[in-house]
Structures are given as C-alpha cells and as structure tokens.
Amino acid sequence: MNGPSTPAGTQRATDSWALLSATVKGVGKKYSQDSCGALSVAEGRAAVLTVADGHGSAAHFRSDFGSRWAVEEFTACAEGFAREAVRVGADATGWNGLRAEARRLPQQVAHRWRERALLHDCNSPAHGARRLTAPADEPPDLAVYGSTLIGAVVTQTMLFCWQLGDGDIVLVDAEGTPHTPLSTGPDMGDETDSLCEPEPWRKMRSHWQPFTGGAPPVVLLSTDGLSKSFADHQGFLDFATGVTERAAGQGVPAVQAQLADWLERAAKYSGDDTTFVGAFAATALAETERGTAW
C-alpha cells in the first residue's frame, strides 16, 4: 500500500519531492476563481501537480466550482497514473503503455468533470426555470462552470504534463535554464480553450519527457495571472528561475513561507487571480545549489 499524501510545503525524510503551492485572489475580486493541488504520492517517489483557472466573467459565474472540480478530478485520475509511472521507472519496455495511458487521461478527466457539472446543474439549474423548458435533446449549457486545466506527473525517471487553455508550465534544469514545453506563443487575449467545450480533451496539449541522465528538472505550474504580471515573458522566466535558486539556497519551506506575498505583489500588476505550484526533486535542488552563487 502507498503511504499517505503529503501536503504542499512539507517533506518527510523518505520523500523524493518537496512541494510548494499558493493561490491569491485578484485585486478587487470577492473571491478567487483559481484552484490548485500539489500532492506527493507513491511513498514520495512521484508528485502530482495541477492548477486550474475559472474564467470568472459574468457568463462563467460558477467557474470557481469548475476550477475546483478540474483539480480534484485530475488529481484523482493522475494519482493512479503516477503510481504506475513509478512502477515502470526506467524500464523502457513499459514506456509505450504509459504513453498510451497518458493519451487517455485527458478524456477521463473531462468526462468526470462534466459529470460533476451536470449533476450540479441538475440540482441547481444555472439558468433557473428556463432550463426546465429547454428541449429534452438540448445539451445543458456548462459555460457557467468554464475552467482551464494544467496538470503534471513527475517521477525521478520521467515527466508527463497536460494543458488545456492558458497558463504556464516551466521546467528549470540543473543548469538553471528554464524551458516551456507547452508554450503556444503570443497571448491571444481573453480567448482560451475550456473544459466546458464539447470534447475538450481533443484540444489538450501534452508533453512526455524521460530523464536519461542527471537530475529531474524543477517543475513549476502557474495560472496566467502570474505571467501577465510581468512586462515581458523573460521577466516571468526570471521569476521561475529565481524561485528555483531560492529553494536551493534557503530550502523549499522558506520559499513556501514567502510565496503568497510574492504572488500578492504580482496580482497587483495583473489584477487577476494568481496561482503557483512546484515540485523540487532532492537531487535537482542539490545540483542547482552547486550551480548557483546564491
């Protein structure tokens, strides 16, 4: 049996991963539409990370539910996948099976999310009595629950990540160089793919990366409220590498203690809800510490 999950910001002596997470609401907002999760599973040998950004406009007035369900359903599906990834490890004969399972995971998550949205709308129709007069064959409008989703599963031997809609995944290698494996290029404004669309899994981007040598990268996920707070993309990447350097020099718990304050300052510039999660392998932290002057 696997041991209990470890909350973000803490690490047992047997864990391979140190996790951090924080989310803050946008300036002037009543509450945040973002959700996040950071979980250590398989006795600390894997980490499951996820962030979701509810759309938050008047047309998406229940998107705080949608983002929370996105995180919960991704985590539920990804936990079992992470355990299997740990079991397969560096055995290349099992990689094809893992990749096939990774391709199925977005559809599983989307179906589970849709079931929760349908149940909630059935019990509490978003559009009141008008829903009761809708044609029987008309699908319910789930736009009110619309949310993006970014998720990752990382072990000592491989990384899988998935993304629907905006937000960012940054990998910081042992040399301190950031990479954005699922970057889509220039910001397209407020338009984004969403779980509320028909068959959203078809639009979900994915990335798989085995670690054939050296330490796993630091894995950082964030909603777009963070990247939008910087004047340019390089400023955002500098923030990611700075967090990694501080984690190496001061320890992940110290960074966790300061993270919400950093995000609060960022939110003042973007005006948006801002969420950030990360996973740091013990070996990656050691390598980064040796490679920096912090």
Describe this structure in words.
The chain has 294 residues and is of the alpha+beta class. It has a single domain (17-291), classed as Phosphatase 2c, domain 1. The chain has six helices and ten strands, in the order E-E-E-H-H-E-E-E-E-E-E-H-H-H-E-H. The chain has helices at residues 63-88, 95-123, 224-227, 233-250, 252-270, 282-291; strands at 17-24, 34-41, 46-53, 149-155, 158-164, 168-172, 178-179, 205-210, 218-222, 274-281. A five-stranded antiparallel β-sheet has the order 1-10-9-6-7. It has a five-stranded antiparallel β-sheet with strand order 2-3-4-5-8, covered by helices on one side. The protein is globular. 47% of the residues are buried. The model is unreliable at 1-15 (pLDDT under 50).
Helix/strand layout:
Elements: E1 17-24, E2 34-41, E3 46-53, H1 63-88, H2 95-123, E4 149-155, E5 158-164, E6 168-172, E7 178-179, E8 205-210, E9 218-222, H3 224-227, H4 233-250, H5 252-270, E10 274-281, H6 282-291
Antiparallel strand pairs: 1-10, 2-3, 3-4, 4-5, 5-8, 6-7, 6-9, 9-10
